[in-house]
Fold this protein.
Amino acid sequence: MGNVFVFDHPLIQHKLTYIRDKNTGTKEFRELVDEVAMLMAFEITRDLPVKEVNVETPVTTAPSKVLAGKKLGLVPILRAGLGMVDGVRKLIPAAKVGHVGLYRDPETFKPVEYYVKLPNDIEERELIVIDPMLATGGSANDAIAALKKRGGKNIRLMCLIAAPEGVEVIKEAHPDVDIYLAAMDERLDDHGYIIPGLGDAGDRLFGTK
Ligand code: PRP
Ligand code: URA
C-alpha cells in the first residue's frame, strides 16, 4: 500500500487534455470528467476478487465469473468530488456513497469540514475517496482521517490531477492509502493552485466563479 498509480491510458490522457483546456465550457467539462472517472474506475477495480459460477447460456452451461461480493463505498469530497461520482457508479452501481464536505479557506488553504454522512458499515467496505484535485493535500488528508475516525480501514484515493506536494502529504499521513491519478503535475503556485492543473475544479464543474 502507499503506492501511486498514474493512468497513462490514451483515452484518459486525451480527455484530460480537453479538461485542462481553458476554452472547454461547463457542459463539456462535466461530461469529460464523468468519462475519465469511469475509465479510471475500470483501472482501479482491476484487483477486485471474483468467484467461479456456472451460467446457463441458451446453448449450455458455461463456467464463468462474477464479483465476489466485496462491499464498496465511494466518498466524494464536496463539492468537486461530485463531478466524478456518477462516472464511477456507472461501473459499480452497487457501491454505497458517503459524502465529506470540505472547503479550502482561501487565506490559509486549510480545509474546513462542514458535512460528513457515511454508510453505517464503512468498516466493512473498500472505500474510494474521490476528488478531482490533490493540491496541498489538506482536503484529502482530512477526508481520509474523517473516514478512519469513523472506522474506515481499507481506503483508496482517486484524483484527476495531483501536485507532488499533496502526494507527499498523503503518503506521509496515510501510508496505507493507495493513490490513483490521471496526471501528476509540476507544483503548486503561491495560491495553492496546481500548475499547470485545470484551474478551480468546482467552479468549472458547476459554472461558478
Ligand atoms: C478543491 C478540490 C479539493 C481541494 C484540493 O476544493 O476539489 O477538494 O480544493 O486542495 P487541497 O489539496 O489543497 O486541499 P475547494 O476547497 O475549492 O472546494 P469546492 O470543491 O467546494 O470547490
Ligand atoms: N483546487 C482546485 O480546484 N484546483 C487547484 O488547482 C487546487 C485546488
